[in-house]
From TrEMBL:
Transmembrane annotation, as ranges: 40-59
Record keywords, A-Z: Membrane, Transmembrane, Transmembrane helix
Gene source species: Prunus avium
Superkingdom of source: Eukaryota
Listed name of the protein: Probable glycosyltransferase STELLO2
Record-linked InterPro entries: STL-like
Source species taxonomy: Eukaryota, Viridiplantae, Streptophyta, Embryophyta, Tracheophyta
Length: 458
């Protein structure tokens, strides 16, 4: 039997596809604003995702670029640092313009003055056998005068012909660098580096310091020395030795302030090469701004006293101590170390000089000795701001470690001085300005034979 073909029923699947096609066919006819409003959260999500990826990509590239630029800048800075070369033909420097051209003295006191003479300074000029040299700056009154003292104004300093003048600021005590050179030029064998607020106890520097290291006037004695028991100890607080455990000197790394233990035993050393002699100050000792502002009660002036019966104490090689420009004797064998860095904060200058100089002293067999109270400094109830010490608190600990580990490849002292100064520039302890300043000062010293007669210790 023939069966007539008939159209079967449409499958549901086919019907659904047709509906989808129908709905899609009408999409172009929808209003665009309606479509955006219905899909807004999707659009925002996608846009934010794209923006986030873009920002992360940009930041990553910026960070890489910044790091690269920083590295390139540092590399370029190091490439620009060049060790200066000594000129073969140096014109001699002679004092022909100052009223003191023919004046000579073996013992000088060098101070910086910014105000009219203090009572302490008036007493300094009365010390028998010593010549006071007052160095002015831009803050010094134009009519400054003190009988018995030689005063050098900015104008007079400019006429002396020293090359270091090109590097010195006009308003700072570091202009004492001119005074050191002037004293050396006029016969100095000993220089007392002082300030105008300290009075010498009993008015006799010879009673406290070792002014004669050789000959009949020398004290032939054995000096106590800090022990070598702890090879990791690179710095000491000398105030503990002299009876003040809770006081610390400016220039002591703050991380070492809590080291309060007394020395259990000392070694001994023969005197004769204590070319740098650091005195302790009663009243207001040389302390940093951290101590001054945290230990001071109201407006009461500090009057700290140290044990004047404690013996002087020497520092062995490998161990350092803060050395300042307020109460220190320099002998001729260490005159090369009388310079004050110009590229660091003001109250860090003499401390950095002291550490730099101590390291070089080891090269000639010299050492530093700290003495019991030699002066009384009066507290004017004012302290230097922390900002003027910033290079101390940031770098001094690292500097000491660097200096103790530093080794020289040179043979002559002049070369060692430049080598260390260059290394300190590379390490960022001071800038290239101080490298050039150090080199220039050696040019000036060369006229006076300071470096020619200096031999390194073997």
């Amino acid at each position: 039997m023939l069966v007539q073909d008939r159209p079967g029923p449409k499958s549901p699947k086919h019907s659904h596809s047709s509906q989808i096609r129908a709905s899609l066919s009408f999409a172009p006819n929808l209003d665009f604003s309606t479509w955006v409003s219905e899909n807004l959260y999707k659009i925002v999500t996608v846009v934010l995702l794209i923006a986030t990826v873009a920002v992360l990509f940009v930041l990553r590239n910026i960070g890489d670029t910044a790091a690269l630029l920083c590295f390139e800048t540092q590399a370029q800075a190091l490439e620009k640092i060049r060790l200066p070369q000594l000129e073969s033909n140096i014109k001699p420097i002679s004092d022909t313009s100052s009223p003191y051209a023919s004046f000579r003295s073996e013992k000088w006191i060098v101070v910086s003055v910014s105000n009219y003479p203090t009572d302490s300074l008036r007493k300094l000029v009365k010390l028998k056998g010593w010549q006071v040299l007052a160095i002015g700056n831009s803050k010094t009154p134009s009519d400054w005068s003190l009988k018995g003292a030689i005063f050098l104004s900015l104008e007079q300093q400019a006429q002396l012909g020293f090359r270091v003048l090109d590097y010195l600021p006009y308003d700072s005590y570091v202009r004492k660098s001119v005074g050191y050179l002037f004293a050396i030029q006029h016969g100095a064998k000993k220089i007392f580096d002082a300030d105008d607020r300290g009075e010498v106890i009993d008015d006799d520097l010879g009673k406290h310091f070792d002014l004669e290291l050789t000959g009949e006037g020398a004290r032939q004695e054995i000096i106590l020395q800090y022990s070598h028991e702890n090879p990791n100890r690179t710095i000491v607080n000398p105030y503990i030795h002299f009876g003040q455990r809770s006081v610390w000197p400016r220039g002591l790394p703050l991380e070492n302030v809590g080291e309060l233990g007394h020395e259990e035993f000392y070694t001994e050393i023969f005197g004769g090469k204590q070319f740098v002699q650091q005195g302790i100050s009663n009243g207001l000792p040389d302390v940093d701004s951290v101590f001054y502002f945290t230990r001071k009660s109201g407006l009461e002036a500090f009057d700290i006293r140290f044990d004047d019966h404690a013996p002087k104490v020497a520092l062995p090689q490998g161990t350092m101590v803060p050395v300042n420009s307020f109460n220190t004797i320099y002998h001729a064998s260490a005159f090369w170390g009388l310079m004050l860095p110009v590229s660091v904060s003001t109250m860090a200058s003499d401390v950095l000089r002291g550490y730099w100089g101590q390291r070089l002293l080891w090269e000639i067999g010299g050492f530093v000795v700290v003495y019991p109270p030699t002066v009384h400094r009066y507290d004017r109830i004012q302290a230097y701001p922390f900002s003027e010490e910033k290079d101390l608190h940031v770098n001094v600990g690292r500097l000491i470690k660097f200096l103790v580990s530093w080794r020289s490849s040179k043979h002559r002292l002049f070369e060692k001085i430049l080598e260390l100064s260059f290394a300190m520039t590379e390490e960022g302890f001071w800038t290239e300005k101080d490298l050039k300043f150090t080199f220039t000062r050696k040019h000036d010293l060369n006229h006076f034979g300071i470096l020619k007669r200096q031999r390194c210790h073997k």
